[in-house]
Amino acid sequence: MSLRSKDPQIYELIQRERRRQAEVLELIASENYVSDEVLESLGSILTNKYAEGYPRKRYYGGNEIIDQVEELAIARVKAAFELPIDWHVNVQPYSGSPANLEVYNGLLEKGDTIMAMSLDQGGHLTHGSPVNFSGKNYNFVHYGVSAKTGRLDYMEILKLADRTHPKLILCGFTAYPREIDFKKFKEIAEKVKAISMADISHIGGLVVAGVHLSPIPFFDVVTTTTHKTLRGPRAAIIMSKDKFASAIDKSVFPGMQGGPHENAIAAVAVAMKEVKTAAFRKYAEQVVKNAKALARSLQDFGFKLVSGGTDNHLMLVDLTNKNIGGKDAQELLDLAGIVTNRTMVPFDPRKPWDPSGIRLGTAAITSRGMKEKEMSKIASWITAVITDHSVADNVRGEIKRFTKNFPAPGL
Ligand SMILES: *Cc1c(COP(=O)(O)O)cnc(C)c1O
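^ Those are the sequences you sent over. The predicted structure of the assembly is below.
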């Protein structure tokens, strides 16, 4: 009420964005709709407090309640991911990118070799992009997917590790539609005596729900954002074996961050309680069912998918046979109220600004209660818009009516 009267400009922009989020089909694989309770914690007075340091070792006074918030968040992360007793949790990273840099900074020296997935085949900027701090300060060697299958080729990854002796091997991706064999990665890391790190930012929610294999039994360090399939606030967590705990904690604070955002940490705690429910497990199962259904329907309409399908919440559509680039497709779909992002496909002959593919994910639409039946409807809208650009406006109207039947959490 007070924002509305005291700052009508921002109030109105929030209202417009709320309407936009309600009226579109949100297919960006990294987005989701958080609960009212997560929003309430984020918007709470916890944002007022400075708490540099860690629970019971703070540099500021007045943290006796904040300590309990952070300890609860840590305990709930441990329960959600079923961490062994010799694992440690840091809930302070502001987001996924800093979390990754904080691990490198804590465990490696500048210039050390890190092996990770190349960006154009599904890696993240913080996995060694030349424009990112990671690529500028560490020596990255990159593996990719097999040209034939679009899947990870573990023999090739082993050969590259043997040849380059990385100090850290990183797996976990932003655009890989298939199950990751964490056990094979661990074997490769053990063979070359590298630290094993998994960045499960995208699939975190599937992992806690038991819908995707967990890296925890196999890896040394695991990072994840909390706002993608985990459906929490924009933040991240670092989980590690105890022997890395002190180096990672020092790297997060005072190494790379100052005061933790305790309002976000409280929201992480709320989300970690939510993911332990039967309802969330069902949700995560439905996310994957929906992705498979959407993939099959799109294939029925003649779309080509990288690797021929999906095991998780996302798929990569290679538009080469549809005579449209990723940029045009994304913009056209946007006009129709279908929100996606363009993406490179493996061995893409086109450039990142206008690549050959679009990436689609089902995490957000599944939070609105959509099921397999709705996926075939969505596939037919995508097909209609890509095939005949003039229908975009009509489709937008249809989607506006359609989405009214699927209220999104938190809106
Ligand atoms: C999203 C993502 C990140 C980064 O998260 P931000 O919160 O956007 O910084 C890191 N790694 C992977 C694999 C991701 O998908």
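The chain is about 45% helix and 15% strand. The chain has two domains: 40-274, 278-403.

Shout if you want it in another format.
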